[in-house]
Specification:
By secondary structure, the chain is α/β, with parallel strands linked by helices. About 40% of the residues lie in helices and about 30% in strands. It has one domain: 2-Layer Sandwich (Nucleotidyltransferase, domain 5). Helix 1 packs parallel to helix 4. The radius of gyration is 15 Å and the shape is globular.
């Protein structure tokens, strides 16, 4: 069964409180997820949404199409920037923890990305934005630990 995932990230300030949202669909199955963090960046939330959604998949080798309004995420995968980052041992790469997390989970599936224009009326992209914004405005948000420990080098 083909799986469709829409993702989005948000940050109030960049860096600032942030959150992500994702909508996963496969046949009649529909699931929404979101989470917020007290200090992070928009790009981290865009990528974390993808990681969290892919990590929910129960069956390996699933055909997955991820729709994202993040050129950062879509281009890094589709233009194969990640291969260059690996070759240079992640030197001068932002968010290496999340890119490694992405690579580990994406290796289990057949993932392709499609860029969608944000805030352009796409129902699922708009829903992901609502989820992400709501997540970053929550109370008692947890730490994005890697970011908080490495922000000065990011």
């Amino acid at each position: 069964m083909d799986i469709i995932i829409y993702t989005d990230g948000a940050a109030k300030g960049n860096p600032g409180p942030g959150g992500y949202g994702a909508v996963l669909m496969a046949g009649k199955f529909h699931k929404e997820i979101s989470e917020g963090f007290r200090l992070t960046t928009n790009n981290r939330m865009e990528l974390m949404a993808v990681c969290a959604a892919l990590e929910l998949l129960k069956f390996d080798n699933s055909p997955v199409t991820v729709y994202s309004d993040s050129k950062y995420v879509v281009d890094a995968v589709e233009k194969k920037w990640i291969a260059g980052w690996v070759k240079r041992a992640w030197k001068n790469v932002k968010n290496p923890d999340l890119w490694k997390r992405y690579m580990a989970v994406a290796a289990k599936h057949n993932v392709k990305f499609v860029w969608v224009k944000g805030h352009a009326g796409n129902t699922y992209n708009e829903r992901c934005d609502e989820l992400a914004v709501a997540a970053c405005t929550g109370r008692n948000l947890p730490a994005d630990t890697w970011y908080e420990q490495n922000a000065s080098s990011d």
